[in-house]
Design brief:
It holds the Pfam family GH43_C2. This protein is an all-beta fold. 0% of the residues lie in helices and 46% in strands.
Length: 549
């Protein structure tokens, strides 16, 4: 059986391709660097994080990009002996007066690019600029060898439909640019917010898959078909073929933004994004995740879910493929290798050497204090996805601040407006001390601080977080207290549900998910560094009081 989601934690907008016996899924990374996550499987059940292809400044530079901008909705295909990767680099989301897509600002910047590689691990080419007319671009390889770019069309004019349908335009491989006339091939349905196009050719039909309803609770997958690529397209009899819309009992919510893949025996599977809301708060701290389930082509030539209900499933039938498991990632990273462990990322910059070093102090991750937490240029924050509603994470930091503008510690982070930060700092009254700063996105008081906890100088400090759904606890231990105990717990219970897509000040984009990691700041300009000796992340069952474990 397939257990959904197959890619837990922040892994939205899946695009899937099969090459021989291998399956690859590309997902969005937004402002996290390097850009685009590619996972690999041989059985559609077991997956591993394989690569992030956008690794250098010529491909992606997100310095200054606002929260939830950056890389949106990659499309991964294979043709002519090459992998083709299309992606959007969003530079401006724009201000809105209300939350969600219904409050969409008029002017936005969506720049669409193409990179290619003969191998999935790279090297990937420098990008070809395509257009900036909208987001969610995808590349369709027709049977005659011609290629077409499809994307959502953005209309900024007053009174217009911002999501103004799906456009298609031919791409010339020889000229490395779009050619011919751009045509609006599908205006969308009454559900609105039409996006995420993928085109397929089957039995003489062109099948167009789109997402509609917005990437929240009304999300769904729409299908239409035509004998001509440019239309007109007739709608599926059910219009929406997969959704959790109006199904509050479904364990997987927000289902949409889908793509299709065929197994060697001709069976079709659909990948799609989804969200798993917290039971007590209804918010999705894990962000938008990726699920998969079988779909069936009917005698009428239309696609439906295997059970005919159009509902996302927690468990789905696996294909008749040999099981292929991958080695589990280690729970504890010691930072002994010359590169960051694959699960970790940083924010925005293509020049990580300005933020971190794994060589300056062997066996440690050194972070150089730069901007404040939430800065949009050079922020020394290295983190990994939260992939379960319940987990433990810990680290130890060697850090001797001399000023209150110098900070380092353990952070639970969604974006620059939503985080809980357990950090070490210093001031002239207390000396070296520990406290928590919380940034609240939807409260009158946006920043709160706990009372300071004095610390002795010149000794490393172990930091720990326990998360159980909406409850979050921080603890600390002075180095030398022994590994068998000695944890001191802050008395506060923090609200983990703010690290979610739904906890939001009106008009601000929220498209990522919760991360947990290490950070260092130095606003004094001295560039003080912090050294982290390990990082441990363990998923676990729900606990009434995780501080006792």
């Amino acid at each position: 059986m397939i257990q959904n989601p197959i890619l837990p934690g922040f892994n939205p907008d899946p695009s899937i391709v099969r090459v021989g016996d291998d399956y690859y899924i590309a997902t969005s990374t937004f402002e996290w660097y390097p850009g685009v996550q590619i996972h690999h499987s041989r059985d559609l059940v077991n997956w591993r994080l394989l690569a992030r292809p956008l690794t250098r400044a010529s491909q992606l530079n997100m310095l200054g990009a606002p929260d939830s901008c950056g890389v949106w909705a990659p499309c991964l295909t294979y043709a002519d002996g090459l992998f083709w990767l299309i992606y959007t680099d969003v530079k401006r989301y724009g201000r809105t007066s209300t939350g969600g897509a219904t409050g969409s600002a008029s002017l936005r910047d969506f720049h669409n690019y193409l990179v290619t590689s003969p191998a999935i691990e790279g090297p990937w080419s420098d990008p070809v600029y395509l257009n900036s007319s909208g987001f969610d671009p995808s590349l369709f390889h027709d049977d005659d060898g011609r290629k077409y770019l499809l994307n959502q069309l953005w209309d900024h004019r007053p009174g217009s439909n911002r999501f103004n349908g799906i456009v298609a335009q031919e791409y010339s491989v020889a000229d490395r640019r779009l050619v011919g006339q751009r045509r609006n091939i599908f205006p969308g349905t009454a559900h609105g917010l039409t996006e995420a196009p993928h085109l397929y050719r089957r039995n003489g039909w062109y099948y167009l898959l789109t997402a509609e309803g917005g990437t929240g609770w009304n999300h769904g997958v729409t299908m239409a078909r035509s004998r001509d690529l440019h239309g007109p397209y007739e709608l599926h009899p059910d219009v929406t073929i997969l959704t959790a819309r109006n199904r509050p009992d479904a364990a997987l919510q927000r289902a949409g933004h889908a793509d299709l893949v065929d197994t060697p025996d001709g069976r079709t599977y659909m990948v799609y994004l989804c969200g798993r809301p917290l039971r007590n708060r209804g918010t999705c701290t894990l962000g938008r995740e990726t699920a998969i389930q079988p779909v069936v082509w009917g005698d009428d030539g239309w696609l439906r879910t295997a059970d005919g209900q159009g509902t996302p499933q927690l468990q789905a039938a696996a294909p008749a493929l040999a099981e292929h498991r991958f080695a589990a990632a280690p729970a504890r990273e010691e930072f002994d290798a010359p590169e960051l462990p694959v699960d970790f990322q940083w924010l925005r910059t293509p020049w990580p050497e300005e933020l971190l070093s794994l060589a300056a102090r062997p066996g440690h991750l050194r972070l150089f204090g730069r901007e404040s937490l939430g800065g949009q240029f050079r922020q020394a924050l290295v983190a990994r996805r939260q992939q379960s509603h319940c987990y433990s994470a810990s680290t130890v930091v060697d850090f001797e601040p001399e000023h209150y503008q110098q900070q380092a510690g353990l952070v639970c982070y969604y974006n620059g407006a939503k985080f809980h930060y357990l950090y070490i700092t210093h001031d002239e009254t207390i000396g070296r001390h520990l406290r928590v700063m919380t940034s609240l996105p939807n409260h009158v008081q946006t920043d709160t601080f706990t009372a300071p906890v004095p610390l002795p100088p010149n000794v490393p400090v172990h930091l720990r977080v326990e998360v159980d759904e909406e409850r979050l606890y921080f603890g600390y231990r002075i180095d030398g207290d022994g590994d068998g105990g000695g944890w001191q717990w802050l008395p506060q219970q923090f609200d983990a549900s703010i690290l979610s897509d739904e906890a939001n000040a009106p008009g601000q984009p929220n498209f990522t998910g919760a991360f947990v990691g290490m950070a260092c700041q130095d606003m004094s300009g001295a560039g003080l560094h912090a050294d982290f000796d390990y990082f441990e992340y363990r998923e676990r069952p729900y606990s009434i009081d995780p501080r006792r474990t």
